[in-house]
Amino acid sequence: MTRPPARLLRALLATCLLVLLPGCATAEPDPLVVLGPWTGKEGEAFEEALRSLDDGTGREYTYEGTRSLRETLLSQMEADDPPDVAILNSIGELTEYARRDRLRPLVGEAADRAYPPWAPALLVDSRARRYWVPLKIDLKSLVWSGKDAPRDDPEWCVGLASQATSGWPGTDWIEDILLHQEGPEFYESWATGRRDWRDPAVRRAWTTWSRLLGDRTPASVQHSLTTSYEGESGTGGPRGLLDSPGFDCTHEHQSAFVRYLYAGDEVRVEPAARYLGGRPEYADAYEVAGDMAAVFSDDPGAQELVERLSGRAGRQRWRAEADPAVRPLFPDTADHPPGPAADPVERRIHELLTEDARTLCFDASDVMPPALRDAFHRAVLEFFRHPSQSRLDTLLGQLETVRLRMDEDYRGDRSFRPPEDICASPGG
């Protein structure tokens, strides 16, 4: 016999109390639980925004922030006690949850805000449905440097370690190179599992990355493999790779979210295209990422919460609560211009998203099924450690084997098709 989930037990207990206690007409509903990736100042700002949303709806919201998001969510689902709403950055994971009927399709205005490329439709039982909505986004195709750093002949900072998914800064490199060398159409078909990993164009992206990084000593390789993008901590906390004494480098390829590590008037941020050996016609294509909200419960309040969080009022509250360095970017960026207190970096990122970008493509590894994504992360670390052609042949062959296994799995499920449209214009 399976154990009833904890939230059901609480509801039954509340019902019993109503019967036993005279004078009680109704029981207050449990707080809606939101599981998300933000901790520290980011988590505090989001929690304050949630708190301010409780303004007459009769519901309270509890936020659980964790850096081990996937592990936490899986353990909660195994206990049959998932959160009401979870915020994830992986389309591949969300696709798997939808396929296993753990997500609820979005309804109302939230479904209308499922902007591409962050929230492609899924085909379930011959019906196109939207299962998540982007709350916060990031621009990835960026290069950071000190204001006085030379623009040519960069020495690249590389920190490949991370708490949850070691290797993703390397996959970001390869994805960005492939996007700018081969264009959005090729990138989209590769990211969604419709291209062989041994394709010469894919191989060229890996070898271009190795060539750009140049020769590295065993000590520098080990240092990169054991240091995260936050670099080495000083008295004030993390200071970024550009400012870490253990790195002798001038440029960093990294997403917009690292602006919290650097003072906005001390760094320069540029489009990555000019550094990647790509084609001029693809210079206005940018890789992006996002944090998407999905509903895991049948409680109507969960749908309402996602609708309110993704609306203009919810975004304004969130933005108002956040410190400038962690102020969120939103998918409809043009409707949320930087305020008068914005620093030059925030203004430049907004300009790139609203004026320079013509095509946005979602982070490829975050589109892939979790098994393929994790294999990609591991392969990047191995190639960085041993960048030989024979090693690359082996790694690409292994990745192709995983891709074929994932493809066979999906082809065997005729009721479901994963997303294929992960590139779109900024306006959707």
UniProtKB/TrEMBL annotation:
It comes from the Bacteria. Residues 1-27 form the signal peptide. The keyword Signal applies. The keyword Signal applies. Keywords: Signal. This is Alpha-glucoside ABC transporter substrate-binding protein.
